[in-house]
Specification:
2 domains; Amidohydro-rel (chains A, B, C); about 10% strand; alpha/beta; 15 helices; homotrimer
Chain lengths: ~350, ~350, ~350
């Protein structure tokens, strides 16, 4: 009933290049890091069931076939051919690839080639700052090099991303640290850091976010399991400065994210990753996001990493959910079909094309 | 299936007296103050779509006609005739009008006449206190005049309202400030204030809320974008004192508001404004409110301001949502039809009639 | 469509042994302690309507008959016969009975006999510590006796429960207090305490939770009206120590509880009590819990206390909700029927059998 355009995936990662066994595959279905509880498996989750719903048919198997059978077929085809078959069926026109994750993942160009799509880079701020620290001798040099590195990254990429926004005290102090405060923090951090050590100083993290805001590119903020309401002060402080803020991964706080997108002109809300994680519930979660957010402020993403199956699941769940929710509103007379079609295009691709200047 | 009684709108505002262009009209569809983001419009929101669903037919146009066409028809009829047509079709028996907003809005008597309904006044506390400050020379005079003004307002109005409850530190200190503390706060505030300046001192705001509690009228608390859980301590401290608390505008925190209404005998939850803002999702939001709140503790309102269209949308969305949700439960055997009819009457009008003594 | 196995109720209480009048019965339908608001009744809640839906037919009356008629029939049969009829129709195989509530409630053996089911005890930590305090003369004796009492309770029971987790500062300090800190807190508390006085010292409460974690049994944490996100730090600190944490009574925070169950291998989420309280909305609430929690991490409970009707309502609402939600996903092709049947068994009984070692 609603024609679904090809998607712009505004936040994803590359896929693994190596063959995977059942256990390694399963590990990528759960939250990163933690193993499944004894007696349980990550296949028994909405994500696991969604993979078994959408992916086996793309490799010539029946939906919901057992995991071991699916993995056997995957190995039979090989990781490269599996990746191509899955990615090319996902209906993605453009990937915005966050390259800041560790691990042997394909980069934007390789993902684009495998998918027959376009790809652009998103630069993650924390690893960028850590690389700068590895080659900067003093606090002053570090701060100067950091600004330069962020400005250089703004030229080659379409956006920045950060995972530390909920952890750097923005709820208490939204403003940028002063020059002296940043310098002292840099001195302390460099002194206790060994090469490769993570950026964990709240003052420096805040300083880094503000440099990125100054660079004018959209800034994607991962809110993890925190309520994005903690970012309301930062949103107020950055209003009118020219950089858009994009709230990522809000579930179960997607309604708060949608409300912030309604309250601040420069704040946008992501909705794809929440849908990918909730599987059979994707239409319900999508409908909740559509309550308070203006329709021009919502952006599709997959948040997929490592497995091409996660790219497929996110896109399939999103398309099915959007068609179901908007279709029901049209049938009910709440929306016109013309409006529904227009809003589908906005969320699927047009909003991202405008915000990231992809046109 | 469920007969819907005429409504008591327990919290609304007057409408504008001036003709509106497309841009001015659109501004009233968004959150107050912020403009729409570049490349977007507030017509592309649930509120905007709901206006285009419910209002054009009342002015002789087809549903979902383009905004420009609707605005042209509106100007053709004139603002007064448009207001009468819209308001008289909204099915409101009684308006409780919060007169504390700035701008050239119709008062209770004018709204009642345009709508062929009754109207009562709700006095907003903050502007009342600011008027008192404009004419009080000393801290002592201010505090004495303030108590007198609140008591006088309690005689002519049916309730008080306040927008500062989430901002005056109630989560930390629920109790009223002591006499000396209030006096020092009044002295400090008056000394730094110029005429017309806003009441922004947390101690005085807390003092003001407690004077209102003492006056015995229901006290409506706008919680804005905050979780009303921050008011749990204030609810506990005011239990049994005789004044009811009514939590307004809870979305997306409507479930927390409903839970508080269940936990405290003197706490009530509003549900109309959340429905008006969520349009096609109104039935789902209403159903969530009906989970934890006792049915005798829920009150319809529109929260409408400036545009008579918002009065229409709130009432239409509420009636459609209530009919759909309760009707489905009756069909399912979960509720009896008799109970559903009775609960519809309670939420639409009877609870408000009891709480505000409108009988 | 989905066969529903007999349930393991992982958290409930006994029932009253005395005949009840209309008012006493009604009091048990509301939140404990608070009376209904003037002009309202706790029968006008989802719980009240659910009791009138499910229970009258079990006593030979029509569904939704008036409360007075139901109470008359209840008295006619007598409290013991009423209890047997209701409990035996609830489809419970095993009760885990939290014996820490005051009042004249049946114990595990009596509940098992009335229901023709099995029952095991859950020991609530706070009353246990208060009993130890009643018979310990010094801080040192109290701390030594407390450890011994918890270890003894771990032998005779299947789990511990606690109601103080959200109130003992775990969000700020997740770690166990040091030996000296616990000793000073015990000294202060014993000095100001009279016999029977409640354990309300945050340091001692934290100490108590950590002793229970050390005993290796599952620890059920009531989160009351708090967001279980405040327990994330405690969950991180107790990971890998061998004791599982079970989050109870999450509504309206059930989604946060589900997310924590997905993030930590040793954290589980309860879902029965939220369903019992939300009546006609139980299927919707259940569906939300199923978004983010792995299916092996969800446990049915009733949370029922005092009235056998609450045991019936929880079990009936749960079975109806589970059948409806999973059935719809199977019809939609989102889940296979085999998977749906398997997940139903896991949540209804198998997960609890594994976690509490009931096999």
């Amino acid at each position: 009933m609603i024609d679904m355009p090809r998607l712009v995936d505004q936040s994803c990662h590359g896929v693994l290049r190596t063959e995977l066994g059942l256990g390694t595959f399963e590990a990528h279905l759960g939250p990163s890091g933690a193993p499944p509880a004894s007696g349980t498996t990550f296949f028994d989750t909405q994500t696991g069931f969604a993979v078994r719903r959408w992916c086996p048919p793309l490799l010539g198997l029946e939906p919901h076939c057992p995991p071991a059978r699916y993995l056997a077929r995957r190995r039979e085809l090989g990781v490269a051919e599996t990746g191509r078959r899955l990615l090319r069926s996902a209906g993605i026109a453009t990937y915005l690839v966050d390259t800041g994750l560790p691990g042997d993942l394909t980069g934007p160009a390789e993902l684009a080639a495998a998918s027959r799509a376009r790809a652009h880079e998103i630069v993650r701020l924390e690893p960028l700052a850590e690389q700068v620290a590895d080659t900067s001798g003093t606090a002053d040099a570090f701060l100067a090099n950091l600004t330069e590195a962020v400005q250089a990254a703004a030229v080659r990429s379409v956006a920045f991303s950060s995972v530390s926004a909920p952890r750097c005290g923005l709820a208490a102090v939204a403003e940028p640290p002063g020059r002296g405060e940043a310098r002292r923090a840099a001195g302390r951090w460099l002194a206790r850091r060994t090469a490769g050590g993570p950026l964990d100083d709240p003052v420096l993290l805040r300083h880094l976010l503000w440099i990125a805001v100054g660079a004018g590119r959209p800034l994607q903020l991962h809110t993890g399991d925190r309520d994005p309401a903690v970012l309301a002060g930062f949103a107020a402080a950055t209003a009118g400065l020219g950089a858009d803020l994009v709230l990522l991964h809000g579930s179960p706080h997607h309604r708060t994210a949608a409300r912030l997108a309604g309250a601040f002109p420069h704040v946008y809300a992501d909705l794809g990753a929440a849908l990918a994680a909730t599987g059979a519930r994707a239409a319900d979660v999508l409908a909740e996001v559509l309550e308070l957010a203006p329709f021009g402020k919502l952006l599709y993403s997959s948040g997929a990493r490592a497995l091409p199956e996660l790219h497929v699941v996110a896109a399939s769940a999103f398309r099915a959910a959007l068609g179901r929710v908007l279709g029901a509103w049209v049938l009910d007379g709440a929306w016109s079909r013309t409006d529904a079609q227009r809003v589908a295009g906005m969320i699927a691709a047009d909003n991202a094309t405008r915000v990231y200047r992809l046109g």
